[in-house]
Write the structure tokens for this entry.
Amino acid sequence: MDGIETPTLIVWMAVLAAIVTVAAIALPFITQKGQSQRFKAVTDRRQELSRDQMSSLESKGSSIRQRKGQSRAELMKKILHALKIDQALGSKEIKESLSQAGYRGPNAIIGFAFARFALAGGLFALSFIVIAAWKDFPYPLQVKILIMGVAALIGFYLPKIIVTNSGQKRQVQLNAGFADALDLMVICVEGGLSVEGAFDRVTEEIADKSPLLAQEFGLTSAELAYLGDRHKAYTNFAERTGLPAIKSLSTTLMQSEKYGTPVGQALKVLYQERRQERMALAEKKGAALPAMLTVPMILFFLPPLFMVVIGPAAINIMNQ
């Protein structure tokens, strides 16, 4: 210590104190940063493991559900085969009706056929139990048989009615957004896109406004990309929807590719025809409006009008 001068010692102690002070101030931030990094790493790892676990559970659940669905379908198919009514599974008309209604699963036609015969038998059995439990049934045996037969017919045709109504509602929703989709398709094709690119672009643009039509355009785009026969993709597009307008679009695209006419020009002609049809439909509705207003005017407008016009005179006559 004798060799070190007092001012030098004071300077070194001041430097050491400064280093300790800086270390003391910076240590919590460094520790916090390290802890936050470790916490973030742990959180990321936990989320990754959770995603892996959820994906594995979803895959297991989907496989279990798929096996259950296949087992149920196989059971229904065996029952239909045992009843000698499995020939209904090969009906093209039923497949098209189910597809137009949105039922496109691999087991949709099996479930539809089974539902028809199951409901018919169930309602027949239910009506038989009700009539048998009704001790003082006031009608003869012929009426009982007629009631049970009508119940069976209702159960047999009820699934078909539901599918038909679903298909009609779906066609109304598809038709509501088809004009805009066709307009966008014309713009895309004239802008230089291919037919596949136009289908993809229209699918993206109308997804929020018309999701059903976007789904159909997306399926057609996928079929155009993966099917070897493009005409088959267009035919499937028309059969899935059942709309005359979409059938016209499919026919136009097929003829354009067959004869080599420009797709943009063909689509523009189709769009003009479609717009003329819409104008004609609007004019038809406008022309039918006076006839539709006749009954409401007679029931709701004329009686108050007569009361306002004739009422004061009638009151004056009664007061005299």
Q: What stands out?
A: Confidence is low (pLDDT under 50) at residues 31-36, 38-43, 56-69. Residues 89-163 form one domain. The CA atoms of residues 33 and 39 lie 10 Å apart.
